[in-house]
Amino acid sequence: MIVLRSILFNLVFYLNLIGQMIVLSPAYFLLPRKKALVVPKNWARSNHWLFAKIVGTTFEVEGLENIPKGQGYIFAPKHQSLWDTYALLPWQDDPFYILKRELTWIPLFGWYLLKQRMVPVDRGARGKVMAAVMERAKAEMRSGRQLIIYPEGTRRPPGAPPEYKYGIARLYRDLKVPVLPVVMHPGLFWPRRKFLRYPGHFKVRILPAIPPGMDPDDFLAHLVDVMETASDKLLLETVDANPHLPLPPTAAARVAELRARGV
Questions:
Q1: For residue 69, is it left (φ>0), alpha (ψ between -120 and 50) or beta?
Q2: From 8, 69, 76, 124, which residue has the greatest number of CB atoms within 10 Å?
């Protein structure tokens, strides 16, 4: 049954993406930029409904009171799955990404990105190019937008040892805005590089914002400590609440280690 539900969900998920992108393009491109965000936000909500109805997977968001009000900030979630690239858009007022420029070359999808003033970058860029990217990010932040960036850079399986990149410390130093850490384990239900989708319920936990002004090295050490401690706690909660889940080796090993330590 899980295989059939997974196949159906994957099919409907991509049909939903393509269909909405085509049908809603006239409204999206005619609306002012910020008002046009209603299109991707409603697309995200429709995916939540499909995930719940087809697969049987639901979630809840905790810590919404920690979101800074009336200012720009860096939104820094754990990254485990395709799910977390779009799922929290409805809770962001006016988000943007620093993303590889090749994504903006994709017909229609890339035009959607450019409409929202995403900041494209050549991953091999150095010097003046990166300085220009930072200036763009600062300009967007001054208008009160939220930069979404994954501290570990790429998707990591649940329970894997942390591999935080120094890039977020540079952004924290240069942008001078709060950083909002977020932990979650969608990778247990929507694993990376697999087509299977598993039913259950999980939580997204938004942690208190880290204010600007710390030394970048101290900030990074603090971010890793805060996020990994919260992530471990939430991993145990998620596994206990979903005993049917087939855990990936990284998660199984981490759970066993935490249990042995009496966490």
A1: beta
A2: 76
Looking at residue 124, what is its pLDDT? 61
The DSSP 8-state label assigned to residue 205 in this structure reads E
How far is the C-alpha of 138 from the C-alpha of 174, rounded, in Å? 8
pTM beyond cutoff 0.90: yes
Q: List the domain boundaries for the chain.
A: 57-260
Please name the amino acid found at residue 79.
H
Instruction: Please say whether the beta carbons of 62 and 203 come within 8 A.
Output: yes
Three-state DSSP at 235 gives: helix
pLDDT of 191:
94
Secondary structure of residue 147 in the 3-state scheme: strand
Count of CA atoms in the C-beta half-sphere (13 A) of 186: 26
Q: How many CB atoms lie within 10 A of CB 73?
A: 23
| Assigned token pair, 15 | 């049909």
pLDDT tens sequence across 55-90: 999 999 999 999 998 889 999 999 999 999 999 999
Please name the helix (run of DSSP H) or strand (run of DSSP E) that holds residue 32, with its range, or none: none
| DSSP, res 37 | G
Question: Which fold, 57-260?
Answer: Glycerol-3-phosphate (1)-acyltransferase (3.40.1130)
pLDDT digits (tens, 9 = 90+) for 93-140: 999 998 888 888 988 889 999 999 998 887 665 556 667 778 888 889
How many other C-beta atoms lie within 10 A of the C-beta of residue 143?
Answer: 11
Sign of CA pseudo-dihedral 230, 227, 89, 159 = negative
Q: Positive or negative CA dihedral for 231, 236, 238, 244?
A: positive
Read off the pLDDT of residues 145-184 as tens digits, 9 standing for 90 and up.
999 999 998 899 999 999 999 989 999 999 999 999 999 9
